[in-house]
Every structure is written in C-alpha cells, then in structure tokens.
Amino acid sequence: MSYVVGLTGGIGSGKSTVAELFAELGVDIIDADIIAREIVEPGQPALAAIAAHFGPGVMTASGHLDRRALRERVFNLPQEKAWLNALLHPIIRERMVAACAASVSPYCLLVVPLLVENNLTSLCQRVLVVDVSPDIQLQRTVKRDSSSEAQIRAIMAAQASREQRLAAADDIINNNSPDKAGLQREVARLHRHYVGLAQELKGKG
C-alpha cells in the first residue's frame, strides 16, 4: 500500500512550488490537474461525451477541447456544471488511485486543488495544506494570471474557505514569505517526517 500525502491550498498559495520541491527529493507527484487535462485529450471517451453534450462550440478547429468556451458554458448553469463533474470526477479519481498504487517512492504526493471541496481527503493518509493570507493569494494570482481582482475573488469565493482547509490539515506550510530557502527547509523536514510515517505503516502491514 502506498502512503499518500494529499497536498492542497487555495489559488495562488504556491502548491506547484511546494510540489516541485518534494519532487526534487525524489517523491512521486500525482497531479489532479494534469490528469484532468489528459482525460479530455483528442481520442479520449470523455472528450467525445463532452462534444456530444455541448456541441461543436466547445471544440477547437483542431479537435481539442476549448477550455475557455466550456468554462463559459457551465459558469452560470449549475445543472451543466453538475453534468460535467459527474462525467469527469469518477475518471479523475480512478486515475489518481491507480497512480498512487503504482508509486515507487517511499510515499507519494497527491496534488489536488479541490481536495477538501470534493471530499477526497479519504484518499490520503495525511493532508498537507499550503496556507497563505487571502491578500497575498490575490496579489500573487493577479500578477501570475493577469486576471482582474474581481475574477480572482470569484474563484476564491468558490473554493473552500481558509478555515475549512486548515481544519482538514494534518500539516501546514505557511507560504506568506517569499523566502525560498525557508520553504526548502520546511519541505525537507516534512519529507523526513513522511518517510518515517510511511516506514511505520509498512512495518505494520
């Protein structure tokens, strides 16, 4: 059995940076966003189902999914969003579980932005939350995505609250500071901790 650490955090919290630091230590990274992109590539059954349901308006001329068009189609239509989630979430979950089972590092990191919102904490032995203040989230994301403050605030409002994420956390990385060296030290400390916990579990198995 693989020891799974779930990594989550709000938009702009620095999840990707933290995941990269764990990867540098040899940890297998399973990223829900990458899986979500893979399952709607041309030739995948999910893409055919989306095209059949929403019509050619959500497809590009080259036969790829037009993500922006799809987002706009489902944004204010809860029933359409629910249909899309019902199609994609079980496939993503199945792929994540298979990837965790196939992991060969002492433990694996399952990176899921909506880990708390989609009730996926049961897939993990530990939950690690990258925590930042809402103000810093907003600043970083506006700068990174060149999006308006209003757009970012809407995304933040749709995600779990900071309090909800922290309530689900076993471990927390505070990422308010731009101190990369401090972040590396914290990741290294948690890495040693997780290796120990994984070995403990293996000993019991």
Can you walk through the features of this model?
The chain is of the alpha/beta class and 205 residues long. Helices cover 56% and strands 11% of the residues. It folds into two domains: 1-27 and 106-205, Rossmann fold; 34-104, Rossmann fold (3-Layer(aba) Sandwich). It has helices at residues 15-24, 32-38, 45-54, 67-75, 78-101, 134-145, 149-158, 162-168, 180-204; strands spanning 4-8, 28-31, 108-111, 126-131, 171-174. The mean pLDDT is 93. It is found in: Cytoplasm. It holds the Pfam family CoaE. Catalyzes the phosphorylation of the 3'-hydroxyl group of dephosphocoenzyme A to form coenzyme A.
List the SSEs and their pairings.
Elements: E1 4-8, H1 15-24, E2 28-31, H2 32-38, H3 45-54, H4 67-75, H5 78-101, E3 108-111, E4 126-131, H6 134-145, H7 149-158, H8 162-168, E5 171-174, H9 180-204
Parallel strand pairs: 1-3, 1-4, 2-3, 4-5
Distance between the ends: 8 Å
Structural domain tally: 2
Shape category: globular
Tell me roughly what share of residues is in helical segments: 55-70%
Q: Under the CATH scheme, which class of the largest domain? A: Alpha Beta
Mean pLDDT across all amino acids: 93
The major β-sheet equals: 5 strands, parallel
Question: What portion of the residues fall into strands of 2 or more residues?
Answer: 5-15%
Keywords, separated by commas or semicolons:
single chain, 205 residues, alpha/beta, Rossmann fold, 2 domains, five-stranded parallel sheet, 9 helices, globular, nucleotide-binding, coenzyme a biosynthesis, Dephospho-CoA kinase
